[in-house]
Write a structure and sequence with these properties.
Strand content: under 5%
Protein name: Integral membrane protein
Structural class: mainly alpha
Number of strands: 0
Order of helices and strands: HHHH
Keywords: Membrane, Transmembrane, Transmembrane helix
Oligomer: single chain
């Protein structure tokens, strides 16, 4: 059974985190592309996006998948500019981040599904 989305304090906070992360990423990329400040800002934006999805209950796939992609790309961006332009390390960072985050959210889903059976 699919749980319907309802507005709550947690979902409002999640929306705020997702919005602030998106605005931060857009402003950073448009003002200071490739600078050390933009690397820090993109890592912060990725953290805000991931924290936003954690607080979003239930996290629909139409939000979860783009957030995982954006967070992975932003960490790939940070890796690329932190390693003096190494494409290989940037791609590896993006793939590893996507794998870890995807696994983490599927693990969270599994724990929630089995939580009701812990006390049986």
């Amino acid at each position: 059974m699919k749980k319907a989305f309802t507005w709550s304090l947690s979902n409002g906070f999640a929306t705020l985190l997702l919005t602030v992360g998106t605005v931060l990423a857009i402003v950073t990329l448009s003002i200071s592309f490739g600078s050390p400040i933009s690397v820090d800002a993109m890592v912060t934006a990725a953290a805000l996006w991931l924290a936003g999805v954690v607080f979003l209950h239930p996290a629909p796939a139409k939000i979860l998948i783009p957030v995982i992609v954006l967070a992975s790309l932003s960490l790939g961006y940070a890796t690329y500019f932190s390693t003096a332009g190494s494409w290989l390390l940037a791609v590896l960072a993006a793939i590893i981040t996507a794998s870890i985050v995807s696994y983490g959210f599927s693990l969270r889903k599994t724990i929630r599904q089995h939580h009701s059976h812990w006390y049986d």
